[in-house]
Write a structure and sequence with these properties.
The protein contains seven helices and 24 strands. The protein has about 400 residues and is mainly beta. Strand 9 and strand 10 form a beta hairpin. The radius of gyration is 23 Å and the shape is elongated.
Length: about 400
């Protein structure tokens, strides 16, 4: 079975990964819990980085860039309902540590990492080479792209900022290197290549992260937030998730990194203490394709609206969700709702395209949405509505279908 690794302690977090060790339990029955992670060995992929960057070997890059990769430790607390209390109440709190990696991006103490590394943290520390550890402040975060910015005091520290590259120039087959702290093993180097582009992964809050880089460089729990580097030693991605096989949590050679260009477009906002929340339409939809042929829809592509959230831009514009249930080869779906066919005159062929078109906008932007709507007599009519986009909420209201 293939799955995306999730953290054993906090089910809401992703894991590309974070290592979580429960260090204390209080409330409920008390006692001490332990989380044991089984490490699966993964062979290092051969690298031709030295061939494409003459005179710069993986060792050279590691020596130069490893000091700019930090060890991030987050103290987290999760509240759970005790299963032994039959009458409700009996809330249990468990305190643990989540560990990951981070990237020094300037000499003023700014650290870039994954949001899921510091999610729900009550304390964050950053460790450098030679045992130097300082407290860190979370100053900015973007859960929808799994990004966070930390700030640390620089007194007594010699920082080694890494160079941020250009993820738009990356091609399949390019050699890459990952530096991080897998399974608490500090500053480990693995090598490989870019194995695919334009992947999609799910962010901690349920939204989709686009244009993700896929690599076969072994990435394991603890690599999250660390850099994916090109043959010149430039950061092209932030390692975030992995696929695993069987019952283990180790790498099987499929890792995912948030593109550095996504982070670069937000760093100035995150450094100022902002929380990045993009544009929001407020509906869920399904892609119209062959799997929905039993519904006899009037088009072979588009986004079939399933539901519209109350108070959102979609509801205010009069977009309608399904009010009946239809059966397809994939199960039951909501029917009778609008079909989104275009945004600002550009054809929308799928739910993913609809989400991407909305994501490219800003809150407050006005768009025109082309629709097909049932007329109640078995036919459909074309409609165009004007929508003023809202602000994306903290999480997807219904994570079962793509959100716009």
């Amino acid at each position: 079975m293939k799955r995306t690794f999730t953290i054993p302690f906090i089910s809401a977090l992703l894991g590309g990964g974070v290592v979580v060790a429960v260090v204390a339990a209080f409330g409920g029955l008390g006692g001490t819990d332990k989380t044991v992670t089984s490490i699966q060995a993964a062979p290092l992929a051969p690298s031709n980085a030295s061939q494409q960057s003459p005179g710069l070997t993986p060792h050279d890059i590691y020596v130069r860039d490893a000091p700019g990769v930090v060890f991030v430790t987050s103290t987290v607390v999760q509240k759970t309902e005790s299963p032994f209390n039959l009458f409700g109440g009996g809330e249990t709190q468990r305190q643990g540590q989540a560990t990951g990696s981070g990237i020094v991006i300037n000499s003023t103490g700014t650290i870039l990492t994954n949001y899921h590394v510091i999610e729900n943290a009550i304390k964050v520390t950053v460790s450098f080479e030679k045992g130097q550890t300082v407290d860190a402040q979370v100053v900015g975060k973007d859960p929808s792209n799994d990004l966070a910015v930390l700030r640390i005091p620089t007194d007594g520290l010699t920082l080694h900022p890494l160079t941020l590259g250009d993820s738009s120039s990356v091609q399949v087959g390019d050699p890459v290197l990952a530096i991080g702290n897998p399974f608490d093993l500090e500053r480990t180097l693995t090598t490989g290549v870019i194995s695919a582009l334009q992947r999609e992964i799910t962010a901690p809050n349920g939204f989709t992260i686009d244009n993700v880089l896929q690599t076969d460089a072994p990435i394991n729990p603890g690599n999250s937030g660390g850099p994916l580097l090109n043959a010149a030693g430039q950061v092209i991605g932030i390692n975030s998730q992995i696929e695993t096989g069987g019952s283990g949590d180790g790498s099987v050679g499929i890792g995912f990194a948030v593109p550095i260009n996504t982070a670069k477009s937000e760093i100035s906002v995150l450094e100022k203490g902002g929380t990045v929340r993009g544009a929001y339409l407020g509906l869920t939809s399904l892609t119209i394709d062959g799997s929905l042929s039993a519904l006899n829809l009037p088009v072979k592509s588009g986004a079939l609206v399933q539901s519209v959230q109350k108070g959102t831009a979609a509801e205010k514009a009069g977009i309608r969700g399904g009010n009946l249930t239809g059966s397809t080869e994939g199960g039951q779906v909501a029917v009778g709702g609008d079909i989104v066919t275009s945004i600002d005159g550009k054809t929308v062929a799928s739910s993913e395209e609809l989400a991407n078109d909305v994501e490219a906008k800003k809150p407050g932007d006005t768009i025109t949405v082309g629709l097909l709507r049932g007329n109640g007599h078995g036919g459909y009519e074309h409609k165009t509505v004007t929508v003023t986009l809202g602000t994306r909420p903290n999480s997807v209201p219904n994570a079962n279908t793509p959100e716009g």
